[in-house]
Design goal:
By secondary structure, this protein is an alpha+beta fold. The protein contains 5 helices and 8 strands; from the N terminus they run αββααββββββαα. It has an 8-stranded antiparallel β-sheet with strand order 1-2-8-7-6-5-4-3, with helices on both faces. 26% of the residues are buried.
Length: 187
């Protein structure tokens, strides 16, 4: 286990708790090899109770609609459930913890694609208050560059344009889709 990986994730969660960040992303490098971390956090307020959001949240393909989510193994929505995100790439995520209406953790299983290896973890929390729910999504991913193509991806992730595109995908499209699906189900 990479302790720096966990430190970055915990540091991000601490910043979220202290600062109430709506969207943020950062990149940091390891000193001893050609690896780096990309950590991002997004949150959205949904006018629905956690119990109304949960069925949509665990249906990953319903709100992460740009991925082609295909079940691989395990029981739908439970710890151990594995899905493939791209039909032509060996990129898999696994639900590692599911506490209904409160917490969903997802691991990006180790993969080697486009000149880099990667692993990661996503933490999604639901916090109810004042008749609605705040959904927080924090992701920490570790990449190791293996080739020039991987180096190009690293350079792209360090750019402001990539951060804007990441926010547009996760907050503006995916989390907004979760919000729309959850709120329309309560009407």
């Amino acid at each position: 286990m990479h302790f720096r990986f966990m430190f970055l994730l915990l540091g991000s969660l601490n910043a979220i708790a202290l600062g109430g960040i709506g969207a943020a992303a950062s990149i940091s490098e390891e000193r001893d090899n050609n690896a780096y971390y990309f950590v991002s956090h997004y949150e959205i307020r949904i006018d629905a109770a956690p119990a109304e959001i949960w069925p949509h949240l665990i249906d990953l393909g319903s709100w992460m609609y740009e991925f082609e989510v295909a079940p691989v193994s395990g029981n739908y929505g439970e710890a151990g459930y594995v899905v493939q995100l791209y039909p032509d790439q060996p990129f898999y995520v696994q639900i590692t913890r599911a506490i209904p209406n409160r917490l969903l953790t997802i691991a990006n299983l180790p993969s080697t694609i486009r000149g880099e290896t990667s692993t990661g973890v996503g933490v999604i929390t639901l916090s109810e208050s004042a008749g609605g729910t705040t959904v927080n999504l924090t992701m920490s991913r570790r990449y190791e560059v293996l080739s020039d193509e991987g180096a190009e991806l690293k350079a792209a992730r360090a750019s402001n344009e990539f951060r804007q595109n990441d926010a547009a995908m996760w907050k503006d499209r995916f989390l907004t889709r979760l919000k729309e699906r959850s709120e329309s189900a309560t009407k």
